[in-house]
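thread: overnight batch results

M.L. [08:02]
morning all. the overnight job finished for the chain we discussed friday. pasting input first so we're all looking at the same thing
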Amino acid sequence: MRFLIFFLFSSTMVLFVWDFHGVLEIGNEKFIGETVNQVLQENGFKTRISVENMRLWYGIKLYEYFERLVPDENKNRHISLQALCREKMTEDALQSSIRATPFAHDVLSMIAKNSSDQILISNTSDSILDRYLRIVTMKPYFTHIFPTNIPGQERTKTQVLCEYLQHNPPKKVVIIGDAPSDMELSQVNCTIPTRTYHYVHPGWEHRECSSDYKINDLREILQELGNI
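M.L. [08:03]
and the structure it wrote out:
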């Protein structure tokens, strides 16, 4: 899979900015929670991540779970624990744990057919994100894919989106994510009208944050196509 930093394109009417984990896939939160706890146990730590904290923190970078769970360890140790988790994230293991969110393919396909650009920004590494996208078969929908947790090239979602908008300014931005920090991306460029959708899976509680819409069904995003 080829990951691009940015390319210069002509201005698009509407840019859809997607988060991946917790939005376009379902099941990974359970897999990550179990994997983090397994690594903690295998390395002699007594602390464990609870289901409640997994849902509360879900979407942060993998090493950041260890920053919160074993804060007395240094950054290098957190990174090494992250690496141990990644060793367990084989394609076979992920294949049996995750699936596409209901209606995700329908929504992504309809937006793509409308000739609107879609980019994906995810707090994971390039190789792991590639693995996830192969499993849920979503790569073709995106004009650009940005993993932010690449060793030696780590960036924030804000930095990625800011740079992208500087070179590819659309008429409007639509942001879809499950984390409060995703909703804060609406402040990246205040000169471009932005709409935010805070999505969580049915049965999950929306986290406290400011957004234009709080949804449990990705099809609600399709109303944006009527405004183009």
